Amino acid sequence: MGISSTLAREFGRAERREEAVLSALPLLLLAASALISLLQLGELGRPVPVLVLTGACAIWLLGWVRARPALRGRPAAAGIHVAGLMGMGAVLVLLAPWYGIFALTGYLHGYSYLRGPGRVLAALATSAIMAVAYLGGIARIEPGEVWLWLAISVLSTALAVAAYRLTDAAEQRADTQRRALVALEEAHRRLQEATDANAALQAQLLDQARESGTLAERQRVAREIHDTIAQGLAGILTQLQAAEPALPPGSAARDRVLTAERLARESLVEARRTVRALGPEQLERGTLRDALEEITDAWSDAHGIHVELTVTGAERTLPQEAEAALLRVAQEALANVAKHARAEQVALSLVHAPQRVVLEVRDDGDGFEPETRAPADEEADGEGGFGLRGMRQRLEVHGGRLVIDAAPGRGTALCATLPG
Q: In the predicted model, is pLDDT for residue 382 greater than 50?
């Protein structure tokens, strides 16, 4: 639970306690004054008016307690309440000086419900009423002692106003502290949010740096293989092909050259396949859409089959390894169409959905039965392909999946999905 909610709860409790005291204490003081006055009934000149006025005062207090929530924030209503209360208190003190105990209510309600000059006036009136009680009642104040009554009234008023100011200062300090604590909590919350955001950003930067480093290393290795092993194998294959016609047919030397030529060709295919797997150079030159256009155009030129490419949705950039996986799936799907499908029409679509990217390759070729296809058919074909199993593995690494819809004689639809 935050500091602000804790302070609000504590403030609410304190306010309820204060309201309970302001409601109950005047009634208790009134009852105590009435009880003491009744115990000294011999000194009480007019008991009936005193008791009637005591009851009226109690009703006034209870009525204020009931009406106070609705009258909150109305200074005129509070002024009428305090004036009426002190008026009845003054009459009671004149009739029975012991009601000076109850007259203390003027200080409490004057401070709690009035503001500014109203508080001072309430304190002055209450002090004047209580000075009469201090001196034993109006009947015991001689004309020559009026100055004493005035002095007690002024002194009591000064003490009450000083107490008011000290209380105000304490409340202001408490309010300032509350505001400072709430501001501190807010600053701490913002700092925590900034820290969390910074940690997330650092993690993202580390992932990007790791991904960039991995991609750079893969590209470096691909270039090394292409420039050394693949080029060397290509040179060896060229030399063997040049030497083959010079050897007698059926000779052991010619057979060995043919074997070496076959091994060099197979190794060259594997080297090129490894280069392609490490990083498609088409993505280095443009976007995924550009790379798909490049490979479909090249495939169409090589096989004489037009490929219809469509891209829909708001295009966005995926992590390069994810784009490479989709590109490899498209390449392998087109290679499978060329090798097995005998298709006349091929369609390739890339859909950028809100939370995923979908690549679909569809042909009208021979088709096949995916559930009965042997596992061996999904393995690499020795010419650079990696089969359906390889497609699935590439996609699963990035949280994607591969769905195949095919049937003999009805063509094939291959759907690759990646989150993003």
A: no
Sheet holding 412-419, edge to edge: 307-313, 346-352, 356-363, 412-419, 401-406
CB 418 within 8 A of CB 356: yes
CATH number for the domain whose boundaries are 281-419: 3.30.565.10
Q: Which amino acid is at 38?
A: L
Average pLDDT, the chain: 81
What pLDDT score does 377 carry? Answer: 44
How is the chain split into domains, by residue range? 3-141, 281-419
| Joined tokens for residue 272 | 């090129």
372 pLDDT band, cuts 50/70/90, is low
Rounded Cα distance, 155 and 159, in Å? 6
pLDDT for 381? 44
Q: What is the pTM of this model?
A: 0.43
At residue 250, does pLDDT exceed 90?
A: no
Q: Tell which phi-psi region holds residue 37, choosing left (phi > 0), alpha (psi between -120 and 50) or beta.
A: alpha
Q: What distance in Å separates the CA atoms of residue 296 and residue 307, rounded to the nearest whole number? A: 6
Asked if 319 and 357 count as a contact pair (C-beta separation under 8 A), the reply is no
Q: Tell me, what's the pLDDT at 2?
A: 62
Per-residue pLDDT at 131 exceeds 90: no
CA 121 to chain centre: 54
Instruction: Please tell me the predicted confidence (pLDDT) of residue 384.
Output: 37
Q: Which tokens hold the place of 130? A: 């209580």
Task: Please give the torsion angle defined by the CA atoms of residues 19, 25, 28 and 34, in that order, rounded to the nearest 10 degrees.
Answer: -120
Give the C-alpha separation, 46 to 210, whole Å: 98
